[in-house]
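We modelled each protein-ligand pair independently. The example shown here corresponds to the zinc ion entry; the chain sequence is given first, followed by the ligand as SMILES.
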Amino acid sequence: MNFQCKNCGGNMIFAPAKQKMYCPYCDGEDTERVAGNDSLTVCASCGGEVDPGEYKSSDKCPYCGNYLIFDKRVSDNYKPDSIIPFKLDKDMAVASMDKEFKKRLFAPISFLSEKSLESMKGAYVPFFLYDYLAESVYRGEGTKVRSWRSGDYTYTETSYYDVEREMHASFDNIPVDASFEMPDSTMDLMEPYDYTDLMSFDPKYLSGFFGEIYNDTADKFADRAKKKAADSAETLMKKSIGAYSSLKTVVDQTTLTDRKIDYALFPVWVYKYKYAGKDYNFYVNGQTGKVIGKTPVSKLKVVIYSIVSTLLFYGGIEAVLGIVEGVLK
Ligand SMILES: [Zn+2]
Ligand SMILES: [Zn+2]
């Protein structure tokens, strides 16, 4: 399918800044109608042949430039339970990147000016959201030691405690990306997403963006969610135990029970830069603007920075400026 403007027939896209469907040809808002077919290989607009790949759920037709959505990949088993629609449009995402690059103290000056943006695209990344009930039991032997002086003597008092805790915690919507292409650690760093924007799925949100279906079933990605739940349970448990002078653990056990798994799509802007023959990928959370990605590090800048900070520490600001100028020449 694709979304056509009722007024002019143009391809309508979802506009993040307006949170509405928008026609770039006649400025129409929410004037869309669904057009097309349920083919995986024929563009609903121009009839050209398109390549759905293994996982694409929405794409841009290489012939007519219109955005199309593959019906079969947003329905039945592939219908997402929910979606966080893009909140940042292209300009806002670019502004987030510029702000981030200004903060990167150690990036070579030439990276900031000479990097070339090879591509930038808005993509909906498939996520599974796992709910778990965590039941934890802890038993240990703790001591608290207190000492004080009185006259010529130091007294030490050791109190012994049986530490016992039982905890029931429920974790809702632990996100794990279900895309092989997206690096896991990067996707984890994109968190947190704000779930108050989680909407019922509607294919119109995909128009104007690239989309992917989950690359494998939810049980294949569950270990990552379980680890996140177990780590959080451990943190909660530690907090509830508090501080002892010494603590010997006898039992420390957490059992996780599956409760519910949802399939959701989250928005990410993906940037590919080229610099000095190497590729650099950056990712911007399409909801919050959080930027993840590594810039190259300039050795010279690190050296200058450490000279500056050392000298500033000793208070010689004029000398510092002189040295920096000298190094930069
Ligand atoms: Zn129009
Ligand atoms: Zn087309």
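Residues 50 and 62 are 7 Å apart (CA to CA).
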